[in-house]
Amino acid sequence: MSKKVMTPSDIERTYRRFAMQFMEAAEQEPYPAIIGMQTRGVFIARRIHAIIEKEFKTSLDLGILDTTYYRDDFRSRLKMPEVQITDIPFDLYDRDIILVDDVLYTGRTIRSAMDAVMAYGRPQSIRVCCMVDRGHRELPIQGDMIGVTIPTHRDEEVRVKVKELDGEDAVYLVHKDEDVSK
Fold first, then answer.
1. Which of 7, 14, 130, 145 is deepest in the core (most CB within 10 A)?
2. pTM of the prediction?
3. What is the 3-state secondary structure (H, E, C) of the chain?
4. Distance CA 165, CA 39 (A)
């Protein structure tokens, strides 16, 4: 049985809070750069970026990152992975970077993202922003900005839905075998 844990208004409020947190960290130029992680992290990052442009009348650098080739399980998967776009059109050297993703779980995806970012340059710092922290860390990685913490069991999943891909903004807690596309 699926349970909706965040509504569209909860998510919008979280985007606004993230925008405030991003700008609080922006004491001076160059402002932090935002890098959205494929797939849903890109849409979350774009939404936060748009709020910053509208509310703060400034624009932060925005990039897109695919971590496929940096994952520690890349070679052990049986099927060919779907590689997506990476587009980081700014210099990372000595910049403060905010990685944006939908769900923080084991920490392995964030670790792979940090490896990928370091391959593109040497930032001053890397911080992590995720809509949901569901626990079960396997690596010593934590989120710096978290929308909501949802303690889960291993047989559960957190599914973040974004309007641009899924037709709705919502977060669901579901059993692994459950379909919430209905």
1. 130
2. 0.91
3. CCEEEECHHHHHHHHHHHHHHHHHCCCCCCCCEEEEECCHHHHHHHHHHHHHHHHHCCCCCEEEECCHHHCCCCCCCCCCCCCCCCECCCCCCCCEEEEEEEEECCCHHHHHHHHHHHHHCCCCEEEEEEEEECCCCCCCCCCCEEEEECCCCCCEEEEEECHHHHCCCEEEEEECCCCCCC
4. 9
> Residue 11 in contact with residue 170, Cβ under 8 Å?
yes
Q: How many CB atoms lie within 10 A of CB 60?
A: 21
Question: What burial letters (b/e) apply to 79-109, b meaning 16+ CB within 10 Å?
Answer: eeeeeeebebeeebeebbbbbbbbbbbebbb
- 147-180 pLDDT, tens digit per residue, is 999 999 989 999 999 999 999 999 999 998 777 6
Whether 116 has a pLDDT exceeding 70, the answer reads: yes
Which domains are assigned to the chain?
3-175 (3.40.50.2020)
- Residue 25 tokens read as 């960290």
Tell me the CB-side half-sphere exposure of residue 77, using CA atoms within 13 A: 10
What is the chain's Cα-based Rg? 16
Give CA–CA dist 6/24, Å, rounded: 25
